[in-house]
Amino acid sequence: MIQYDVSKLFDIPLKDSTLALQQYDKIYLFELFGLPINATIVSTWIVMVILVLISYFATRNLKADVQVSKFQTLLELMVTWLNGEVKETSNDNPAKYMGLGLALFLFVLVSNFMTIIPWFRPPTASLSTTFAMGIIVFFAIPYFAIRNAGIKGYLKKFIQPTPFMLPMNIFSEFASTFAMALRLFGNMLSGIVFAAVLTTCLPFLLPISMQVLGLLTGSIQAYIFALLAVVYTSGVAPEQASDLTDLNKGDLNG
Amino acid sequence: MDSLALIGALSALGACIGMGIGAIGSAIGEGNAAAAALQGMAQQPDEANRIRSTAFILLAMIETTALYTLVVVMLVLYANPFWDKALDLVTK
């Protein structure tokens, strides 16, 4: 029997915080075409709306002038910075991986920053969200590997350094993305548990400082998640060493 | 002591001890990695940016062991399968 209660998304009583913690996926809000919609999906939609609105309004008045808006400067700073990071870690044309990397980075960053809104549970604190992103990376690995080096080059990765390593290589293929999903989930969950425990024993002051720390770890986790996705997807390099002109093609710094 | 109390007590004990051991291992590993990264940055300030980004990734990977423990501890504390089974047997 499924209970529906819209007020539960933003109003989780403190004494039930530990209960709501484990059953975040089991808080059903309403029904859509016969499918029960839980709080994770709704909070994901909220994050998606925010991202879409930001990108819509940010790209309205793009200028290549000397005087650009502060908003554009902020976004350019972010994209340029991540572009440089991706270029350094992948040793390849960063434009190839920026679509996946920046999307993951922005989604995780915005949902982690949403923790400062009281009673809003970030979707990244739910195992189903992080595993969905892990599965995306899991299928992106063969896609980029085959695109870089062909099917032969991709399969060759599994028998390196020796064919005896085949089972280990297959296992590590699964374990790496699994660990990625679990790492993000564990970090966000530990922040929430910590905040819940501190709120019960010392309300008002201490949880605020923990939330500030949570913002720091949240941004670091977003960076790590995106960078690890790039590290794994760029694991199989193109066969001929990419020359410097190819490397600089996607460089936004010129 | 009935079996329900035994399961509860042992779960809490196991969760605390497990989390403690998991945290110790991860903390020692992260400390070593951070020390080495700082040393590298001090010796080669030109490479500081590259070392920093690599160190972040490596620290996150080392931290994973503690987070595995955390997930298991959360399972034991909040979604304990043995507890549910025992509760079912008792209430039946």
- Uncertain stretches of chain A: 5-20
> What would you call the quaternary organization?
heterodimer
**Which runs of chain B of at least 5 residues are low in confidence (pLDDT < 50)?**
none
Tell me the strand percentage band of chain A.
under 5%
Largest sheet composition of chain B: none
Number of helical runs of chain A? 8
Strand content of chain B: under 5%
The helix-strand sequence of chain A is HEEHHHHHHH
What is the strand arrangement across the widest sheet of chain A?
A: 1-2
Q: What percent of residues of chain A adopt helix (DSSP H or I)?
A: 55-70%
Biggest chain-to-chain interface with counts: A-B, 22 and 16 residues
Output mean pLDDT of chain B: 87
In whole angstroms, the N-to-C terminal distance of chain B is 19 Å
What would your notes on this structure say?
The complex is a heterodimer of chains A (254) and B (92). Chain A is mainly α and 254 residues long. Chain A has a domain of 176 residues. Chain A contains eight helices and two strands. A two-stranded antiparallel ribbon of chain A has the order 1-2. In chain A, helix 3 packs across helix 4, helix 5 packs antiparallel against helix 6 and helix 6 packs antiparallel against helix 7. The longest helix of chain A is centred in the last third of the chain and has 36 residues. The radius of gyration of chain A is 21 Å and the shape is globular. Chain B is an all-alpha fold and 92 residues long. Chain B has a domain of 46 residues. In chain B, helix 1 runs antiparallel to helix 2 and helix 1 packs antiparallel against helix 3. The longest helix of chain B is centred in the first third of the chain and has 41 residues. The interface between A and B is medium-sized, with 22 and 16 residues.
